[in-house]
Amino acid sequence: MDYLVYYCTTALAIVVGLFYVYAKHNLSYWSRRGVKTPPPHLIFGNFRDCILLQKTPADQLQEIYNSADPDDPYVGMYIFHEPVLLLRDRSLIKQIMITDFENFGNRRFGLSNERDATGYDSILSIRQPRWKYLRRKLTPVVTGQKLRNMMPLMIKSSNEMIDFIENLPVDKTGGKTYEVRNLGSRYCANVLGSVMFGVDTNSFNEDDKGFLISGEKVFRSFSAGVIFIIFFFVPRLSFLLAPLLTGPAEYFRKVFWSSMKVREEMGIKRGDLVDSLLSLKAGEQDPLYKFEGDHLPAQSSSLFQAGFEAGSTTIAFALFHLACHPEHQATLYDEIQTHLAGKEWTMDLMNEMSFTERVLLEALRLFPPLPITDRIAEKDYKIPGTDLIIEKGVSVYLSLNSTSQDPRYFSDPQKFDPLRKSLQEDKKFFESLGFGIGPRACMGTRMGLLFMKIALIAIVTNYTLHYETDGALQNSNINGMANKKKVRHVFQYAADGLHVQFKKRA
Fold it and tell me: Binding positions for heme (predicted)?
């Protein structure tokens, strides 16, 4: 028995020792190349707290970003033992994400289970060269004319939202208080259910919340944290996601095929995504990507999911900041009266609502719903002006929060200021970060801005917004928001919600 204990102990010591040597070698990848890196954990690399759901990905990346010297163009980091380069310099970000896109055309994250076409073959996850073909086919869905066709559906949803607010109970001050991300979620579920699935739904009705419930399951349950961690940090294990996504995936698939069947049988045309997919399904098929089977609902469900969380969170933070800043709220109301009072809402008039758009972009800058965008090197790449080579298969990350709040690029970066100017000349670059960057940026940017504008305009036209502050969350101290995030929620939001008061305009 003593010999057995001795041999087992010796074997364990050898295994531990070998692992230690293996881990230390892997975790010296960047230091051997002269790249600064914060000290990594022996197992989890630089993402221990995030992987264990003790910090949000945004907070973890912020710490890594800030560990570098202010002018460092990049900083090394490790996801477990995998080396990843976090970009910090505007010029380098543009060089890699835009100029040299051909070498960085694929994302690291994604689904590895090819049998799950609704995830693997969506526009968000698909890889080159199939992505380029699919993007070209889907881009006409969000052209100006298509958006004009969708506008009545968006306005209808905004009217349902106003009816919902009207029916809220009145408090003792004569106002109506409601949690604004829930409000935004209901509105986004309506809009996206209509334009992505061709279904007339009313998520403001408690008996018709299928899209709302499915969207919340994907992003706001505990399983959502697990899904995000696997999706972004361990994509090779993404085949494990199938059981976690069964409910929402089946709901989206069922609704899509039901809508498709009605369209085909009755010849209904709405000028939405379903019409476009029907046309692609009936057209000539390319072996590169065939519009058939689950490839069709894959596009509707992925675009719904992307718009649901981004739209509802941005609307919520925009309403919150307007409630905290009456001066900006007054400017927005003046713009509405100048351009829209007594007129039919049209795309041309919406395009003139520049301050409304800046309110949304500023909310998106402060709190981008998705904190990370990434690319993977298809071949060895030498960073211009340096000796550093990003080897084939190594990923580069961009922290949207850190970059869009870097004091090198914005003065007083934590302040909500829709009229701000960046400290750099490249205004368009910084304003678009919340929607991604380069050819793989969100294809629905114009549509997203349109339906979020309509939501803000509808609310501010009818109500003044107010927010009662407390000791933890001051109007002038947006940093307080960081202390109110849910630890077990991977996307940014205030832990207790944002309860805004609506008072009817005279």
Answer: 442
